[in-house]
Amino acid sequence: MSNGAFPISMRDIKFVLYEQLGIERLCEFDKFKDFSRETFDMVLEEGAKLAAEIIAPLNSIADKEGCVYEKGKVKVPEAFHKAFKKYCEGGWIAASVDAEAGGQGLPNSVALATAEMFVGACCSFTTYPGLTRGCANLIESFGTPEQKQMYLEKMYNGQWTGTMCLTEPQAGSAVGDVKSMAKKEGDHYLIQGTKIFITAGDHDLAENIIHAVLARTENAPPGVKGLSLFIVPKVRINPDGSVGEPNDVNCGGIEHKMGLKGSSTCTLNFGDDGKCHGYILGQEGQGIQLMFQMMNEARLGVGLQGFSLGNLAYLFALKYARERIQGVEVTKMKDPNAPRVPIIKHPDVRRMLMTMKAYAEGLRALIYRSAYYADLAEVATDPQEKEYCGNMIDLLIPIVKAYSTDIAFRLTEWAIQVHGGYGYCGEYPVEQICRDVKITSIYEGTNGIQAMDLVGRKLSLKKGALFMGWMKEVNEFIEKHKTHPVFGTAVGQLEQAKNTMVNVSMHFAKVAAGGDPLYPMLNAYPYLELFGEVELAYLLIDQAIIAQNKLRAIFQNAGATTDEAKAKVIDDQADAAFYSGKVYTADFFASNILPKVQATAMTILGGNRSALNIPDAAF
Ligand SMILES: Cc1cc2nc3c(=O)[nH]c(=O)nc-3n(C[C@H](O)[C@H](O)[C@H](O)COP(=O)(O)OP(=O)(O)OC[C@H]3O[C@@H](n4cnc5c(N)ncnc54)[C@H](O)[C@@H]3O)c2cc1C
Q1: Which residue blocks in 90-176 are alpha helix, DSSP H?
Q2: Are residues 423 and 430 in contact, defined by beta-carbon separation less than 8 angstroms?
Q3: Which H/E stretch holds residue 570?
Q4: Structural domain for 496, as ranges
């Protein structure tokens, strides 16, 4: 931890980036040749400073003040204005955008590490730059040169912000049911329709808001194939780039939510007066295809949001457990004069903390590695490596999004539990984090939809090549470390769990081939969880093997050969304590969490169909 009141897992962030992934390798590629580990470190330190000093103080204010809707306009908490200016001045909206396009040109993996800090500091604040980045990304990828010229610079510097407008009252998960219309008129389209739940849809942080709107052109076919994507500015833009007259986009109200209160969630009415101009991105009918190409990045972003908040909840719980004095050690319960101890001494609290630590560190490894794959998929010169990294992102993205966000919610719940009654009260930060994080399992494709994507699409994509590639990687790891003197048992547990998972995957394929798509869909979510547990076990054991080697070297340097001497080194040296923590964490996960995979698999393979067969009336 560092940075006073706002905790940041800087040591683990650097461990994953440098010691596990070895992202310095990226600097060998042309795109990142101007960077080095030193410059990455500088970026991380700058990010930590901004997060702790400027953004974190907003978090509680955001929750208390929320957004205000008055006379058709939305105001964000006043304190956001100064922080937004600072954030934009630092170039953080475009952290991973190419330098030629106005960004810092950072690798995704490094930008993501700073995003972990920003989101943890104040998640609702980060939705404004986050959505701006998402919308600008669409324009950068699919816009005409004129569109790029008109929008990108101002969006990347925060003068204008952006949104993604998909959802309508009847079209949430079923995005193909979008009804908003676009009618061609000269060089533009007239947009008409209502979008709901639009994050950052209206606010007073910027002079213009650029909406990316999914709508249906005249005579378009029904379903997703009939959707097109439009750029719709809130305020029209004059030929010289200045803002002109209003574009008939009106905010009809904001939602009153359980959390994320500083982020405006808006109903937007487009074209009530028939004067809303939209400009097509790509071709008619390409809307969903273009959105899909941005989906991995967006889902990685939401997985990160969930994880950051879950991790933060763990850090606050850990701090509290070290400070809160309550009761005596269990071995001295009969002695009324026994010294009172901090609750971290109680076995049940240690169980919760250990579970949280294991999940938080495992999720960081999963998410950062996905970002690193995204970097390599872009810059790798070996076509096989490029393809492999692309495949891994496609396969793992539903897990990154759904598993991370659901586990994150549980992390916040356990953090409240560790705080006891105080955790339930507003005086401590964990209850807000619990409320804030819940949305991450719902938006950007609900977690149920993610599970269906994994089982219904990703497992069989490219004739199963993605899954086979993943299996090959894990199998090689298992073969290499099966006889490891310290982690051989854990690797054996991983192998068992992986084999079980493969059995379940094959069972799904068999059942679906036999004409029963319902059963795999019924069990898609438990399967996604199972996949997540196996993946995390793999990544945590990998970390532990790295850490154990480093720990051995530290002991050698210190001349510590006895258990007592080693314990002293761990007490005295932060790095030794850190590496030792990794060893215990992997051992804990493999022995306490991974075995649950077997029970989940048994229930899936058991074939029970009660949930499908029960008549609706009998619920
Ligand atoms: C705070 C907030 C911010 C948001 N920001 C944005 C934004 O910026 N832009 C935007 O376009 N949208 C946004 N949304 C909307 C969000 O993406 C949707 O709420 C989400 O896609 C789910 O749609 P829905 O709410 O209509 O739920 P529904 O689709 O009605 O789903 C309800 C439940 O049914 C399940 N379900 C639905 N269909 C299926 C199916 N076929 N198979 C299995 N299960 C199914 C779902 O998993 C879910 O559990 C936001 C929502 C909120 C609350």
Answers
A1: 108-121, 123-142, 145-156
A2: yes
A3: helix 563-572
A4: 463-613
pLDDT > 90? residue 404: yes
Quote the crossing angle between the two packed helices 80-89 and 58-65, to the nearest 10°: 140
Query: What is the domain count for the chain?
Result: 1
Q: Is residue 47 part of a domain?
A: no
Q: Tell me the C-alpha distance between 549 and 590, whole Å.
A: 19
From 401, 446, 523, give the residue whose CB has the most ligand 1 atoms within 8 Å, as the site to mutate.
446
| Cβ neighbours, 10 Å, residue 508 | 23
Q: How far apart are CA 104 and CA 97, in angstroms?
A: 6
DSSP codes of every residue in 158-181: TSEEEEEE--BTTBSS-GGG---E
Pairing of strands 277-281, 188-199: antiparallel
| Residue 340 zone, left/alpha/beta (φ > 0; ψ -120 to 50; rest) | beta
Q: Per residue in 130-166, is it b (16+ CB within 10 Å) or e — as a string?
A: bbbbbbbbbbbebbeeebbebbbbbbbebebbbbbbb
Q: How far is it, in rounded angstroms, from Cα 386 to Cα 559?
A: 44
Positions marked catalytic: 444
Residue given tokens 């990010």 in the structure block: 47
What integer is the mean pLDDT of 387-411? 97
pLDDT in tens, 160-214: 999 999 999 999 999 999 999 999 999 999 999 999 999 999 999 999 999 999 9
E strand or H helix that includes residue 573? none
**Looking at ligand 1, which residue's alpha carbon is closest to its atom 4?**
197
Q: Could you tell me if the CB of 435 is within 6 A of ligand 1?
A: no
**Phi and psi at residue 613, in whole multiples of 5°?**
-85, -25
pLDDT band at 401 (very low <50, low <70, confident <90, very high): very high
pLDDT at 3 over 60: no
pLDDT reading at 4 higher than 80: no
User: Is 152 within the bounds of a domain?
Assistant: no
Distance 528 CA to ligand 1 centre (A): 19
Tell me what the mean pLDDT of segment 338-360 comes to. 98
Cβ–ligand 1 contact at 164 (below 6 Å)? yes
Distance from Cα 65 to the centre of ligand 1, integer Å: 26
Helix (H, G, I), strand (E, B) or coil at 105: coil
CB 594 near ligand 1, within 6 Å: no
592 assigned to some structural domain: yes
Give CA–CA dist 125/158, Å, rounded. 13
Q: By percentage, how much of the chain surpasses pLDDT 70?
A: 99
**Strand partners for 69:** 74
Average pLDDT over residues 6-29: 98
d(CA 415, CA 310): 9
- Residues ≥6 apart with Cβ < 8 Å to 156: 91, 93, 94, 97, 101, 102, 103, 136
Residue 180 to residue 269: CA distance in whole angstroms? 10
What is the ipTM score, two decimals? 0.99
Q: Judge whether 398 and 453 are in contact, CB under 8 Å.
A: yes
For residue 356, tell me if it sits in a domain: no
Mean pLDDT, the chain, rounded, equals 97
Give per-residue pLDDT as tens, 216-245.
Answer: 999 999 999 999 999 999 999 999 999 999
